[in-house]
Amino acid sequence: MFGPGLPHFAVGQIVKGFGRGSKDLGIPTANYPLEVVKSLPNEIATGIYYGWASVDRGNVYKMVMSIGWNPFYKNVHKSMETHIMHKYDRDLYGSELRVAVLAYLRPEKDFASLEDMIKEIKNDIEIAEESLDRPEYAAYRTHYFFCQENSSD
């Protein structure tokens, strides 16, 4: 059911990314700092994943996450960019982001155009939306990780 290194739980402060999620794509992302990215287990391959996310230990929402280099943009540093399937009415920079990464969706890839990339991301979101309703994934929405005081509890 789960792939290598999964499920994986990560916690860290939301930092400014490249500003492309909202601006270029219309799909906002919450980005982890480099130290969280560097702490990923080696067995977690780059690619697109889905699972659950919580900001400041609030409600838990479905999410899709890109882990990797974003070939379309030719990133220099590996990143973890989380699209939370919820519209927030505030800036999330500095907030605590907790994620349970549950399943691998597809490898990261380059795209011929921005429109092609947006179409693929929207497809990823649809697949995650449906998949996370399956009982084996839905159970993680209430995992104790989302209400712990800190990651070492």
From TrEMBL:
Pfam families: Flavokinase
Gene Ontology BP term (one): FMN biosynthetic process
Protein keywords: ATP-binding, Flavoprotein, FMN, Kinase, Metal-binding, Nucleotide-binding, Transferase, Zinc
Pathway info: Cofactor biosynthesis; FMN biosynthesis; FMN from riboflavin (ATP route): step 1/1
GO molecular function, one term: riboflavin kinase activity
Summary of the function given for this chain in its UniProt record: Catalyzes the phosphorylation of riboflavin (vitamin B2) to form flavin-mononucleotide (FMN), hence rate-limiting enzyme in the synthesis of FAD. Essential for TNF-induced reactive oxygen species (ROS) production. Through its interaction with both TNFRSF1A and CYBA, physically and functionally couples TNFRSF1A to NADPH oxidase. TNF-activation of RFK may enhance the incorporation of FAD in NADPH oxidase, a critical step for the assembly and activation of NADPH oxidase.
Name of this protein: Riboflavin kinase
Species annotation: Cephus cinctus (Wheat stem sawfly)
Gene that specifies this protein: LOC107262851
